[in-house]
Amino acid sequence: MKHILVVDDEPIVRRVICLILKQQGHDCVDVRNGHEAMAALKANPPVDLVITDNRMPMMNGLQLIAYLKTSPAYRHLPIVLLSGYLSEEVKALAIAKDVSAFLSKPLDVGELTETVNMVLKAGQSGLKNRSGGLISFTGQTIIDQRHAVALAASRQQSGM
After folding, report:
1. What whole-number distance in Å separates Cα of residue 14 and Cα of residue 19?
2. Domains in the chain, start-ordered, CATH in brackets?
């Protein structure tokens, strides 16, 4: 049994994801935003995976990922970024922060379970190919690491 933290500001999304994960034999804790996620990580047993929405109030998914990846305690924690809208820019920023995989809303049950199983099996390295590009559920490279880093650096230089 793996311990999974689900972070999303939509209660129905959290409930559905946790229901599916529990049916797969996993333990699931759900919270509304990045601030609650940080508190849950400290209060709960070791977490094996974080599934986080990107667009949330108070602390969005990318901010949570940045916090986790700079924290020695959580740096190696696999993270799946979930969103109804994942632009190439957001994907690039997430890849630069070493996110393990992406999931799109509306959720597909098969895609959720397959992605969770693959990421848990792969660990922090996620679903990456040999060149460092992140792999989608279908096995196609979404974006390669060099492109992700270049986009992220460009955005930082422009003050965005």
Report:
1. 8
2. 3-157 (3.40.50.2300)
Give per-residue burial for 118-154: e unless 16+ CB within 10 Å, then b.
bbeeeeeebbbeeeebbbbbeeebbbbbebbeebbee
CB 75 within 8 A of CB 103: no
* pLDDT tens for each residue of the chain, 160 residues long: 899 999 999 999 999 999 999 999 999 999 999 999 999 999 977 899 999 999 999 899 999 999 999 999 999 999 999 988 878 888 888 888 889 999 988 889 999 999 999 999 886 454 554 444 454 443 433 434 444 444 444 445 545 4
Paired residues of 141 in beta bridges: 135
The structure tokens listed for 142 are 């979404």
**Which phi-psi region, left, alpha or beta, contains residue 139 (left: φ > 0; alpha: ψ -120 to 50)?**
left
